[in-house]
Amino acid sequence: MKLTVIGAWGGYPKMDEASSGYLLEHDGYKLLIDCGSGVLSKLQNIIQPEELDGVIISHYHPDHIADIGVLQHARLIQGFLGKNMPTLPIYGHNLDQEEFVKLTYKNITKGMAYNPASRLSIGPFDISFIRTNHPVPCFAMRLEADRKSLVFTGDSSFKEEFIPFSQNADLLLCECNFYAHQNGAGAGHMTSTEAGRFARMAGVNQLVLTHLPHYGQLSDLINEAAKEFEGKILLAEQFLSIDV
Question: In angstroms, how far is CA 132 from the centroid of its own chain?
Answer without folding.
Answer: 13
